[in-house]
Design goal:
five-stranded parallel β-sheet, FAD/NAD(P)-binding domain, about 30% strand, globular, 25 strands
Chain lengths: ~450, ~450
């Protein structure tokens, strides 16, 4: 059997490696557009923060290891442009402009996602960057080295944008952020988002909310060498030496859709719980594919690394004759904003209502350590439940410690379809350096219970 | 109705406060032996570590608040000595040697636990301390101030003993620890216990395992003032200026047992899921009572603060006419040993086998942060599951970060009776500063799954 994989990042290489582990005789071919495989994309802001660390530190496994140690036919510089579902083949162009066609018995599309570039003038200018592939990370880092970058404007305020603001401030670069919508983090409870906002401002990041961007223009710098960029938005002109766009990503599903495969939410490739697309010989996994949301039972699009790896494994196992079905995701994520940990899982109030739940919510400010224990800092929590069923639906947290890993307890509760009443009875860990006797999650759930009953 | 509570610590005062909140007209009397109520007992080692912090910092709520603001009839210095179940009354002696008798409609026994003192010569000597009540904490702190304590011997190596070793080292006091059994933490996987051992030794704590203690003797110090203590054990004599005994606690259930109430495991007072004892008008809660273990469905004795608070609330709610049943505990705990976080939940291999499970186990060493992220440190995990049902049974963790709160995800999984197969599918949080893509819990569960299937 010939197993062909389009895309050599998280989902693709996880699938390739596991397929070979499952069955060393399997013919596994990976077609990767770039020359980078298996790297920590999420680590890029942290690498960019440090001029002394080479970007290739982020490579987890070299291409040669996949080829020589694992026996994977890894073809880099191979850009797939079309799939022929009837003939079971994929075609495209190599780096050297030669065309290629590869036939498959089973195909995995793991093409990932790309940063969304606004269709506006100037976003193609030198000095304007997105950040998704290692190549883009490399370009940003090289640009920072070769140019005198004193100030960067970041368009967008999602988690990559926020991580980049921290990375650039660590290099002592002035950072301004601009976005059209008036909310910093629209999915987040206002009271929690306000804490994040204060942290950004405290660290010298200037936020410009509610400014619709119209274009970017370039003009030669006073030194005649480094050109200056101007981000023009409604009522605001921001000068910059560099612009980073981080307004979200879109699934790389163009040729999948053109081949006739079904696309769904956000034009992500529609997959079943076994990762099969609408064609019985074609799987999709990672940021190009959708997923089931465990809380709603409906489809969702949340492009994150863990799901990509897990889905890659599931495809490999299914190719190998196992019957693996992934229950889905609950939308857990965490990120760092300077000294803050910001985490979420499940649904917020808006999504809860949109999905037909009778949403009850609670906001609680508590503390990270026990009464009278030194070093305690505030933790802010927001939690949502369904009045009808009593089910816990989601949680959000912001704090200086004890947030990133604490959210996982709620994630597991969501996977178990726990009610708030069941959750408040959970035997969570307590010691004075790590939490109050009643863990912040329990304190919040205790309050929420009153609103549910 | 007259609600009488024996004991004014976690369980007792939680019950009293909640009973008054539920029903402000209720007649609530608390009989407390000491003059301290509502303090953070678990915070004592951390308070003792700092000579500049008064021990009364640990008091969460003053007695006057309970009396004046909450209308609780709080009687301190009232030592209960007997219960008359037939007459529904309790009797005892006050500080001033006067006897008292109080009648009740509903009674809560919340007498807590006391440190076990070995029945050996010398444990009654001045300079030999246990640590459970605030009074004992105060005595230790006063002794440290008034005497030149250069070296302390700690008898026992449970979590209070380990926390005390850290507290004393923080005051630059030499610490030696001694115990009869050869294992540092008998409930813990060897490989994890070894990491804890190295951390103690690295911080200058000398460990003497496998030495059965025979007695403590006292002799005048060379200055004729400060007497020196010698802890005599098999093949070893340890000199000390102070001795702390921390070999575990026993429930304060003597007069409860004498009154005819049923005692169970460890002589803890037997309670049902609604906290009722074998008498329909008498409840017990906190460290004097037993609990159901959610994983085994059997009785267990784990005296910890969260359960005490929760059980106190449950009693108050049941007194007020609600029907509250606590599902039980899963044995979650966490403690700090210098720079290490040590956590557990559920069953270890030995307990799993003793409870009839077909135990599969796995040990995994992984890391606290993503590939190439700076500051990553090792995390050591041990996980147990049942081969027959596939159920997750327990986990243990040791590491420098990301342990204390991470254990809660497993605790919730145990409450949900999750299988390992279900647990590995949980959507846990990932960001490079906080974990690898596959959370250490998932990496370990993925390995465990191979041993279960």
């Amino acid at each position: 059997m010939k197993f062909v994989i389009i895309g050599g990042d998280a989902a693709g290489m996880s699938a390739a490696s596991r397929a070979k582990r499952n069955n060393p005789d399997l013919n596994v071919t990976v077609l990767e557009k770039t020359h980078d495989v298996s790297y920590s994309a999420c680590g890029m802001p942290y690498n960019i923060a440090d001029p002394d660390r080479p970007i290739d530190d982020l490579v987890v496994r070299q291409a040669t290891v996949f080829r020589e140690k694992q026996g994977i036919n890894l073809l880099t510089g191979h850009s797939v442009e079309s799939i022929n579902l009837e003939n079971q083949s994929v075609s495209g162009t190599k780096d050297n402009h030669q065309e290629f066609t590869v036939s498959y018995d089973k195909l995995l599309i793991a093409t990932g996602a790309s940063p969304i570039f606004p269709d506006l003038p100037g976003f193609e200018l030198p000095g304007v960057f997105g950040l998704k592939t290692l190549e883009e990370g490399r370009f940003i880092k090289e640009y920072l080295e070769k140019h005198q970058v004193a100030k960067v404007v970041i368009v967008g305020m999602g988690y990559i944008a926020l991580e980049m603001s921290e990375a650039l401030r660590a290099r002592n670069i002035e950072v301004e952020m601009v976005k059209p919508r008036p909310e910093l983090l629209p999915w987040m409870d206002n009271q929690l988002a306000e804490i994040v906002k204060l942290e950004l401002e405290k660290n010298g990041v200037k936020l410009h909310l509610g400014h619709g961007i119209t274009k970017i223009v370039s003009q030669p710098g006073s030194d005649g060498l480094n050109s200056k960029l101007s981000v023009i938005s409604s009522g605001l002109v921001l000068e910059a030496d560099m612009v980073i766009t981080a307004i979200g990503v879109k699934p790389n599903s163009d040729f999948a859709g053109q081949s006739g495969l079904e696309l769904g939410l956000n034009k992500a490739i529609t997959v079943e719980r076994n990762m099969l697309t609408s064609n019985k010989n074609v799987y999709a996994a990672g940021d190009c594919a959708d997923a089931y949301h465990v809380v709603t039972g409906k489809k969702t699009y949340v492009p994150l690394a863990l799901r990509a790896n897990r889905a890659g494994w599931a495809v490999a196992d299914n190719i190998s004759g196992k019957k693996i079905e992934l229950p889905g995701i609950v939308g857990t994520s965490v990120f760092k904003v300077f000294d803050l940990e910001v985490a979420r899982t499940g649904l917020n109030v808006k999504d809860s209502i949109a999905n037909g739940f009778d949403a009850a919510e609670v906001y609680v400010k508590t503390r990270s350590r026990a009464h009278a224990h030194p070093g305690s800092t505030p933790i802010h929590l927001h939690m949502v439940a369904d009045r009808k069923s009593g089910r816990l639906l989601g949680a959000q947290m912001v704090g200086r410690e004890g947030v990133a890993h604490r959210i996982n307890a709620v994630a597991v509760a969501l996977h178990s379809q726990m009610t708030v009443e069941q959750f408040v009875q959970c035997d969570l860990a307590y010691a004075p350096p790590f939490s109050p006797v009643w863990d912040p999650l329990l304190t919040t759930a205790n309050q929420l219970l009153k609103n549910v009953q």
